[in-house]
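Below is how a single chain appears once it has passed through the pipeline. First comes the sequence as given, then the structure the pipeline wrote out for it. We keep one example in the README because the format questions we get most often are answered faster by looking than by reading.
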Amino acid sequence: MAEKAFFKDKDHRIAVTNRRFIVGDSMYPINQIESVSTEESQHTREVRRESAYKMMKIWGIGILVSILLSILFYFLVYSDISMSNDWVGGLVFGMILSSFFILIFAIMWHISWKRRFKDEEYTLHHIIVGVSSGQERAFSSEDNGLIRKIVQALNHAITHVDQTVNS
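Resulting structure:
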């Protein structure tokens, strides 16, 4: 009797035939599968927010602009003082001012960095295969439709084997 395919998915490396259930590198003989069931589990993952990444770039540019403005402010305001040998006070004031701006933008950047990820909940669907040694999770996917198609193909394959054995 030739092997008959009930389901094939090359992307996920899954095949269900009248003789075998193949998932990746694992193979289950159909005549040894006692039961097929599904199970769901809830999971959480971090998903990157594009808007926060763009905000981080804006804050980074803001830090550079604040440094440049502080240096420009120093030269505009204290140019007369530097002529009178009191340039150290102007330099210190410019450094304090630029440090203040950098600190403010660094705090804003840190807040943007923390908000760059968000938690996303999703459901993972599993195919549970009952064999003589117990039950095993044979395959898991977020795609419930794919899981249903595989389970349906497994049920057809098991039924097909039972019909050929009883004939």
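The beta strands are 5-9, 14-17, 20-23, 26-29, 35-48, 117-131, 134-141.

See the next section for the split statistics.
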